[in-house]
Amino acid sequence: MVDASSGTEVTCFKCGFAAPAGSDDWDTATHPSLGTLQRCPDCGSTDTTSG
Dihedral, CA atoms, 11, 17, 28, 9, nearest 10 degrees? Predict the structure, then answer.
């Protein structure tokens, strides 16, 4: 994960939830071939963007 102090904000495409990358606000999900992904705590989606 990215260091939360980097200032990069991650946004969920599905519901619009936004929080700093790597912060404790995000849940995580493990995918067998992709590894650990950030998961939205509001809707459960892993479809996110940073920027």
Answer: 40
